[in-house]
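Structure first, sequence second, as always.
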């Protein structure tokens, strides 16, 4: 299992403009085979800071995701929307257990 955890920054005054692009990215990613979780969350204390959380079943699923049309569209929109300061880290993890 692979986890991607991190943040991106959106100008606070552009959050409403960015929401449709984020919603398209999330919906398309969640529909991909091997996507176990995909979410963005706005930081309560830091306007414009978006927390990213992804869980993928394996490297093949993640590689397919990186080649998808929706991720190309998402990345192409960054400069127009002012998205920057991307800090994402990939972690390998074993199967988790519910507590």
């Amino acid at each position: 299992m692979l986890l991607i955890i991190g943040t991106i920054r959106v100008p606070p005054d552009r959050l409403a403009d960015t929401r449709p692009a984020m919603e398209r990215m999330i919906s398309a990613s969640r529909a991909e085979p091997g996507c176990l979780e995909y979410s963005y969350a706005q930081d309560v204390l830091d306007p414009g800071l978006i927390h990213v959380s992804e869980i993928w079943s394996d490297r093949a699923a993640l590689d397919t995701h990186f080649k998808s049309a929706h991720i190309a569209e998402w990345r192409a929109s960054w400069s127009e929307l002012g998205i920057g300061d991307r800090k994402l880290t990939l972690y390998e993890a074993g199967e988790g257990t519910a507590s």
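Margin note: The mean pLDDT is 93.
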